[in-house]
Amino acid sequence: MDSVDTVPAEKPTNNVSNIFKAIQGFREGTLILIILAVCIIMSFVSPYFFTWPNLKAILLSFSTEGIVVVGMTLILVVGGFDLSVGSVMCLAMVVGGKLFLMGVNPWLASLIGIGVCSLIGFTMGIFVTKVGLNFFITTLAFMGIARGLCFVITQGTPLSLFALPKSFKFIGQGTIYSIPFTIFIFAVIVIASDYLMRKSTLARKVFYTGSNEKAAIFSGIKTHRVKIVTCVLCSTLAGLAGIIYMSRFGASIPGFGIGLELNAISAVVIGGASLTGGVGTVLGSILGIALLQTITGSMVLLDVSPYWQDLIRGGILLGAVSLDHIRHTRKRG
Question: What is the mean pLDDT of residues 15-28?
């Protein structure tokens, strides 16, 4: 009998599996799936999770912190980290609020507050590059300096800023088509910074410096200048976030922002950045802070004790750093 060649039947395509494979092809795909899973689970656990007030609270929180996370991404990619962002953010609030109470126009007062933060970032960059201190010691010291200035300026008493004009309060309290204006500011910063991180010459220099500083120097890159610029950008974005918080709450609280630096570092590492530098994306970091804020909002809805919340967030940070270490150990092996 003549042999008959059989053609294997083609397997039917599965659109759902193709979508999941496409998502997993992205670096941030796993984070997207985890966030979706948390949202789906919470929709069954709590009927209030998908209500607009709850989603609005989560979006407001993660959008303002997300501005700080963008700056922290730059610092981690260049090979360092910034422990001062929470204190620097608070200092912008305090300086801007104090100047406003002294009669300065709130817009000018806010610009001065952000300018002070930029100066702090520049000074930290000088200490890291010219003096030769590492990021940990430098930013730890400036965390104390900035926080100390907050308490000195306010004498430990919150500044009430309810007299701020409506036009200024619109930054933190206004809405456009029921969407908080803060989210639009956040979206513009994220889109612009993500594009620049992928396309700009400065971003390539940041990645080269974080990956192999000696090789970057031999390539003609002025790594000291790159580090200073990233420090200034990180502190400036933290200052901008502080002004947004001041506008949103109508007050400057000297103890505000404590622990923010850990949330920011956690978000960036969860988003795929490496503590050794040279790796990271703005989109991944934003997904990281989105996951953290979604988990925090879920714990609030489930009435989880604040003490347990800190423990869980600390565990997430430890897990993210451990995975990062294991991943890079395997690459070197």
Answer: 50
pLDDT tens-digit map of 128-149: 999 999 999 999 999 999 999 9
Contact at 8 Å (CB) between 94 and 264?
no
Of 9-23, 62-76, 190-204, give the lowest mean pLDDT range.
9-23
Identify the CA nearest to 238 among candidates 40, 56, 71: 71
Rounded to 5 degrees, what angle do the CA atoms 157, 185, 145 make?
35
Helices 106-126, 166-173: crossing angle, 10 deg rounding: 50
Q: Say whether 175 sits in a helix, a strand or coil.
A: strand
Return the closest-CA partner of residue 41 out of 241, 297, 264, 278. 297
Q: And the tokens for 218?
A: 């031999």
Residue with tokens 């979206």: 187
Residue 301 tokens read as: 């809805």
H-type helices in the chain, by residue range? 15-25, 29-45, 52-77, 85-101, 106-126, 135-154, 166-173, 181-199, 201-211, 213-218, 223-249, 260-270, 282-301, 306-332
Report how far residue 235's alpha carbon sits from residue 255's, in angstroms, rounded to the nearest whole number: 18
- As to burial, measured by CB atoms within 10 angstroms (0-12 exposed, 13-18 middle, 19+ buried), residue 328 is middle
| 48 three-state secondary structure | coil
Assigned token pair, 130: 């010219």
The residue assigned the tokens 């620097």 is: 88
Q: What is the DSSP letter of 251?
A: E
Tell me if residue 254 falls in helix, strand or coil.
coil
pLDDT value of position 228: 95
